[in-house]
Amino acid sequence: MTIFGFGNILKLSTFNEFLTEVEIFTNSKISFDRLILLEKSLKLDFNINPIMINNIGATFVKLSNGEIFRSIIYVEKQIVPRFFSPQEILIENLNRYHFYQCQNLSNLIQKGAELSATANFNGFFKYSFVNNSGSIVYKNQNQHLLACKNCISEFNKQYGTNYNVNNFRTDLITVSQNE
Ligand SMILES: [Zn+2]
Q1: Are 30 and 58 members of one domain?
Q2: Are residues 32 and 65 in the same domain?
Q3: 101 C-alpha to center of ligand 1: Å?
Q4: Per-residue 3-state assignment (H helix, E strand, C coil) for 83-103
Q5: Which pairing describes strands 116-118 and 72-74: parallel, antiparallel, or unpaired?
Q6: What's the pLDDT tens digit per position in 19-74?
């Protein structure tokens, strides 16, 4: 019996060997998803990676092995005009990131938007600018984005603080599942 691995064919003689290889493959897929979520951004498939919220409405993402990470949710792709130049990018016009259960995020989920999540709180995001036909025109691995105003007002309510969009820092977003 043979199955395809990444670039090499595994020859397996017994069912147990097959099972072990499948487990290694599955585990490496989970490790890969974890790494992508923690370091870059994971495209969410809600059947596999549902968005979870804790009792104060903070957003988390579940991996297929049950691990749950505090995560920021955002739309990674933005449609740009035909004649686009990266110098014209205005941060105010880019998609905002969400870190609480807010109406904007609910709307995105309801209309089936392609959502990405990151558990990296450095404030810079993987981001793609695409044309009308969906082809990538420009990619930025470290795009600075602004937080969603609804999420900030939720944050202010929870913590009795008064941050505005321009000086909100992503490193403030650290709550536990049980909070
Ligand atoms: Zn929001």
Answers
A1: no
A2: no
A3: 7
A4: CCCHHHCCHHHCCCEECECCH
A5: antiparallel
A6: 676 677 677 777 888 899 999 999 999 888 899 999 899 999 999 888 999 999 99
Tell me, in angstroms, the distance from the centre of ligand 1 to residue 97's CA: 7
Nearest to 63 by CA among 49, 80, 77: 49
Residues in the chain: 179
The residue range of the domain holding 68 is 43-172
Query: Does 31 share its domain with 108?
Result: no
Residues 87 and 154 occupy one common structural domain: yes
Give CA–CA dist 164/170, Å, rounded. 12
Instruction: Record the tokens describing residue 65, joined without a space.
Output: 């092995």
Whether residue 3 is found in the same domain as residue 82: no
The span from the CA of 101 to the CA of 120, in Å, is 18
Q: How far is the CA of 34 from the centre of ligand 1 (A)?
A: 23
pLDDT, tens only, 99-117: 999 999 999 999 999 999 9
Question: What is d(CA 113, CA 76) in angstroms, rounded to the nearest whole number?
Answer: 10
Say how far apart CA 147 and CA 154 lie, in whole Å: 12
Report how far ligand 1's centroid is from the alpha carbon of 77 (Å): 17
Residue with tokens 């995560």: 71
Answer yes or no: are the C-beta atoms of 127 and 145 closer than 8 Å.
yes
Query: How many domains does the structure of the chain reveal?
Result: 2
143 C-alpha to ligand 1 centroid (Å): 18
